[in-house]
Amino acid sequence: METTSSYRIQGATGEWEVVIGLEVHAQVTSNAKLFSGAATAFGAEPNSQVSLIDAAMPGMLPVPNKECIRQAVRTGMAIDAQINKWSRFDRKNYFYADLPQGYQISQLYHPLVGEGAIEVTLDEKDPDSAVKRIGIERIHVEQDAGKLMHDQHPTRSYVDLNRSGVALMEIVSRPDMRSPAEAGAYVKKLRSILRYVGSCDGNMEEGSMRADVNVSVRKPGEEFGTRTETKNVNSVRFVMAVIEHEANRQVDVLESGGKIVQETRLYDPDRNETRSMRSKEDAHDYRYFPDPDLLPLELDDAFLEECRASLPELPDAKRKRYEGDLGLTSYAAAVLTAEAETARWFEALLAECGDQAMAKAASNWLISDLFGALNRLGLDIEHSPVSPKQGAELLKLVADGTLSGTLAKQVFEIMLETRQDPGVIVEEKGLKQTSDTGAIEEVIAKVLADNGDKVEQYKGGKEALFGFFVGQTMKAMGGKANPKVVNDLLKKALG
């Protein structure tokens, strides 16, 4: 169901609507930079991953990295965007201490990828409630700048060129978002797609994905207002905080008779505020022109077919398959497909179960038990102490009646601590569920004899006491009795 946001800012002069567009810079997954063979590993010593090209030494000529182009094309295909078979690199001219060339190689007039779109779910807990389609204007490939380090010396700034020349995809949305929640959902969905495709690791805290947040406000239905751009925001939470703060700041300025200046701003998460950095340039200020050292990119059909064939099943398609073929709820399907790692883990679990009929039990266990435990331990699913094979073995022990739900939880806790297989734990600890009717009948007879008054009350119509008898029987058998057998035998004993 397509929806529009009801998010509004209440000002002294009435309601204001916020208009948001995002420019997401995603570092391309590659073992080399866009125009050089230098490494791109995160956390390397400053200036240890810099080639002569990255340092802009005279006479050095750039050569495009085919893998970077391939990953950008695959990303475009994943959002069903137009792939331009002919594209061109431009020089974006500006001076900054961390930009050795004095220009950035980018794509303005003829980008590699044209228009596409992403559908986002606004309420993750109710995935069918509201969906919004957010347009993508373009994806272009460009090189990153270096980094200034201001904390190494009391009076000087140092320059680290490790990031200089790193390949970025700049994914430019249309100004289609109307609330912080929509923007947050968009960044999460985009990050999920990039991770599924494998074109970017999406690690915002490491700077391999960051967003420039464009915000303006207007009275509902009026023309777009003047926008500001807050640079290099590196978490979903901060993207949402920037929008909220900046929209409220702009409303305050306008309602006090001021004007919004088109400018670049920075976000200070400690104070939760944006600050002016510099006036915002227009394209003509950068004096773009075609890079004379680089020929246009011309992609042939065979290359495009290879890119398309290499794409995995994407989150939306996977979610529909989980709902349709596996019979999962829309919520469970949404949770399991939100991140590529979770979907891979679930599919490995289901493969180990060897029966798709166990999909519901497997998804419930993964979402409730495993996620709960990982959250408690501060771990992600890739570092789970329990493997998909062990999880499947535990589920099979419940399915075949060896373990009750209660016993399975005990076994699971021991698995988390010891990393042992569940079968080993069951044997060592003697935790098998019993379905021995003779033993259970004996315990039931004693429970009923010890609680004659309650038996009379039950027979007199107080049927809620049945749960009491079940509980007493299970307690007497140390939780090892088969609950179904206990229920059946109790009904028979109580007449």
Automatic annotation (TrEMBL):
GO terms for molecular function: asparaginyl-tRNA synthase (glutamine-hydrolyzing) activity; ATP binding; glutaminyl-tRNA synthase (glutamine-hydrolyzing) activity; transferase activity. It is an enzyme of class 6 (ligase). Its EC number is 6.3.5.-. Keywords: ATP-binding, Ligase, Nucleotide-binding, Protein biosynthesis, Transferase. Pfam families: GatB_N (PF02934), GatB_Yqey (PF02637). GO terms for biological process: glutaminyl-tRNAGln biosynthesis via transamidation; translation. Gene3D superfamilies: 1.10.10.410, GatB domain, N-terminal subdomain (1.10.150.380). SUPFAM superfamilies: GatB/YqeY motif, Glutamine synthetase/guanido kinase. It comes from the Bacteria. Residues 344-494 form the Asn/Gln amidotransferase domain. It catalyses: L-glutamyl-tRNA(Gln) + L-glutamine + ATP + H2O = L-glutaminyl-tRNA(Gln) + L-glutamate + ADP + phosphate + H(+); L-aspartyl-tRNA(Asn) + L-glutamine + ATP + H2O = L-asparaginyl-tRNA(Asn) + L-glutamate + ADP + phosphate + 2 H(+). The keyword Cell inner membrane does not apply. Allows the formation of correctly charged Asn-tRNA(Asn) or Gln-tRNA(Gln) through the transamidation of misacylated Asp-tRNA(Asn) or Glu-tRNA(Gln) in organisms which lack either or both of asparaginyl-tRNA or glutaminyl-tRNA synthetases. The reaction takes place in the presence of glutamine and ATP through an activated phospho-Asp-tRNA(Asn) or phospho-Glu-tRNA(Gln). NCBIfam families: gatB, PRK05477.1-2, PRK05477.1-4, PRK05477.1-5. Heterotrimer of A, B and C subunits. Belongs to the GatB/GatE family. GatB subfamily. This is Aspartyl/glutamyl-tRNA(Asn/Gln) amidotransferase subunit B. It comes from Sphingomonas cavernae.
